[in-house]
Task: inverse folding
């Protein structure tokens, strides 16, 4: 019984590791800190741009910073906030980011 449980746990870990290689969030990866993401958030609420302090208060993330995980991690934070707490005070968000110093990419909320 113990051997079966240990084998099942190991198999689950291997399956999730392979799965993580093909999705943007990579939460189940054994080495989740293998990506360096530099990002800049531009947030507008009611037509007014939020300053750095307001962005930090809204998302609990710096307006400009780095994250040693997938850019999807920051996107999930923004989207999660906007779909719950920010529902009654919606924002337009533009996130410019680079992964491992490569070409800059742009993500927007709400999705267009």
Result:
């Amino acid at each position: 019984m113990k051997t079966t449980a240990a084998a099942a746990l190991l198999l689950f870990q291997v399956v999730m590791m392979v799965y993580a290689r093909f999705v943007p969030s990579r939460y189940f990866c054994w080495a989740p800190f293998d990506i360096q993401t530099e990002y800049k958030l531009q947030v507008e609420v009611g037509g007014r741009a939020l300053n750095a302090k307001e962005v930090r208060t809204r998302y609990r993330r710096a307006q400009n910073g780095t994250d040693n995980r997938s850019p999807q991690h920051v996107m999930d934070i923004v989207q999660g906030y906007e779909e719950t707490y920010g529902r009654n005070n919606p924002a337009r968000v533009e996130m410019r980011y680079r992964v491992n110093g490569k070409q800059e990419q742009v993500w927007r909320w709400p999705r267009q």
